[in-house]
Design the sequence.
């Protein structure tokens, strides 16, 4: 049998819409669920309400399949046998289904909502707002005008009519987020940065406060290093410029605000890689290596060191080879860190240590935890390397460290017949259990002999320093303890992983600094690129146990007297602290 479904709907203005479709199947399902053959969207109709099946000879049987029944010609029932030739009317909730015979013999089911007069409590209309609200077109215009008025016209009018230093009303919807801590004082003073409405912040506006910010490089060099955009990039730049956006090279290209009430977000790696990724292709005379991603494209570290004893740092050396520096010292780290060596046994015999020497016994971090203070004789060395040379009653006479002229005067005036304090001691480096470390300057022949003995390579000074005979007298090469090796990079020992050497580096300083195997003070004990990559990779890395590291983690765009991204608040403080640390 063929069922012909004729659905009659009405538009808002009362016009009828009639749709027909034929279903050549023996039975139909009726219900509120959309998968039914006869879909009746009414809360009074069950999801699967009834079934209409062919019974032969033009008759159909209607059976309720749920808990609710239906009405047949005004009578409630749950089952009915209907002859389509005589016709009948079924009611399911607010819908009426008329059963009849079509001219071609198909069973015609006419489906339409019941009229308002026949069904005053129409369920479909009862749950609708159509009777209470204007039409869709009118609502769209009303809401559009409300948005323009509240979020555009009102803030603009407030900005034009407000008194000086008075905040703009209704501008919260324009604010993409809170200002960073550095600019939080400007929260209610938008015009300090946004001088002109609907225009990006200009670089000259930033420079009204940041007067002492230095350029990254010479403008001509930066213009030549900047990657030339393609056709699409030039089109986007022209569109941006037409809306008042500055650049390229503007402050807002790097510094993004309204990202949250915390530190300003670091610059993305791509900002630096646009120039430095292929720098050698545009600046042919540059000595800088290409750098685009710390884990993939980055040159080897080249710290600034002294190559001439006693001179200032004068050359860059690559950590990828046998890096050396002339520090003016001669002692090896290995002798002090050897767990079975004499220095260890001495340290264990002294009450100050009580155990083998470690890096922290001589190297002390600065107050900010970033670097290390210079090693000092009195604080870090004298407990083992005493400069006592004579005893007057219970008082020891001590050479003044760091003052060669004073030491020369003291030894020249010393009593020729002074006896050694510890009999049998040949030179510093030998010790007695529980005793201090005294020097032997006998047999004394003359003041000059005593001075030469102290400053010889086997003397008390020569154990750590490099003696030199200059200008007719003995002296030592000045010691260099650089506060910073990487002049254009920033590194801090403060983070927990650096402070304790966690992860693949072990739990001590030797995880990065090969001090336990260093046999000469000329070794430059700095980690190279490969060592740093055991923990740090590029900004986009997703590998476990790897730290995503963008360019801004170690480098700053604006050169200063302090390291980039320094925690020091001003240049004077930076210059003071630069004298200490490593």
Sequence:
């Amino acid at each position: 049998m063929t069922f012909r479904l004729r659905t009659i709907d009405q538009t808002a203005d009362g016009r009828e819409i009639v749709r027909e479709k034929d279903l050549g199947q023996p039975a139909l399902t009726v219900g509120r669920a959309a998968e039914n053959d006869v879909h009746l969207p009414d809360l009074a109709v069950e999801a699967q309400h009834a079934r209409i099946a062919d019974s032969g000879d033009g008759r159909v049987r209607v059976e309720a399949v749920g808990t609710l029944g239906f009405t047949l010609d005004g009578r409630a029932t749950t089952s009915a046998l209907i002859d389509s030739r005589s016709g009948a009317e079924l009611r399911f909730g607010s819908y009426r289904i008329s059963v009849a015979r079509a001219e071609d013999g198909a069973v015609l089911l006419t489906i339409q909502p019941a009229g308002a007069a026949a069904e005053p409590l129409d369920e479909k209309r009862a749950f609708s707002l159509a009777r209470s609200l204007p039409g869709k077109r009118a609502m769209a215009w009303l809401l559009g005008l409300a948005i323009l008025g509240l979020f555009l016209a009102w803030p603009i009018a407030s900005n034009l009519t407000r008194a000086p230093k008075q905040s703009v009303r209704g501008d919260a919807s324009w604010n993409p987020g809170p200002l960073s801590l550095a600019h939080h004082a400007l929260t209610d003073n938008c015009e300090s940065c946004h001088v002109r409405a609907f225009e990006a912040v200009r670089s000259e506006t930033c420079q009204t406060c940041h007067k002492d910010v230095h350029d990254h490089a010479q403008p001509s060099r930066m213009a030549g290093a900047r990657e030339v955009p393609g056709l699409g990039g030039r089109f986007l730049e022209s569109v941006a410029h037409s809306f008042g956006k500055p650049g390229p090279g503007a402050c807002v290209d790097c510094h993004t605000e309204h990202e949250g009430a915390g530190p300003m977000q670091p610059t993305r790696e791509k900002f630096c890689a646009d120039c430095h990724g292929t720098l050698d292709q545009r600046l042919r005379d540059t000595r800088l290596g290409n750098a685009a991603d710390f884990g993939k494209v980055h040159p080897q570290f080249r710290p600034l060191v002294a190559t001439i004893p006693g001179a200032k740092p004068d050359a860059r050396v690559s950590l990828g080879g046998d890096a050396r520096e002339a520090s003016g010292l001669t002692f090896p780290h290995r002798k002090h860190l050897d767990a079975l060596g004499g220095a260890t046994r001495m340290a264990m015999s002294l009450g100050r240590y009580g155990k083998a020497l470690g890096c922290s016994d001589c190297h002390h971090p600065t107050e900010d935890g970033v670097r290390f203070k210079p090693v000092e004789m009195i604080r870090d060395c004298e407990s083992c390397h005493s400069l006592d040379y004579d005893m007057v009653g219970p008082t020891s006479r001590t050479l003044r460290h760091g003052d060669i002229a004073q030491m020369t005067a003291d030894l020249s005036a010393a009593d020729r017949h002074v006896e050694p304090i510890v009999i049998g001691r040949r030179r510093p480096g030998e010790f007695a259990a529980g005793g201090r470390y005294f020097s032997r300057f006998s047999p004394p022949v003359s003041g000059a002999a005593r001075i030469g003995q102290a400053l010889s390579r086997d003397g008390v000074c020569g154990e750590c320093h490099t003696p030199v005979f200059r200008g007719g007298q003995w002296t030592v090469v000045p010691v260099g303890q650089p506060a910073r090796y990487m002049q254009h990079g920033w590194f801090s020992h403060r983070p927990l992983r650096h402070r304790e050497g966690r992860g693949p580096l072990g739990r001590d300083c030797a995880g990065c600094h090969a001090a336990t195997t260093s046999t000469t003070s000329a070794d430059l004990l700095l980690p190279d690129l490969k060592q740093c990559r055991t923990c740090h990779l590029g900004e986009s890395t997703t590998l476990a146990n790897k730290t995503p590291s963008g360019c801004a983690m170690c480098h700053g765009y604006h050169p200063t007297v302090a390291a980039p991204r320094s925690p020091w608040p001003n240049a004077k403080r930076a210059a003071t602290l630069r004298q200490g640390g490593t």
About this structure: The two ends are 95 Å apart (CA to CA). The chain has 14 helices and 20 strands. The chain has a mean pLDDT of 80. The longest helix spans residues 136-161.
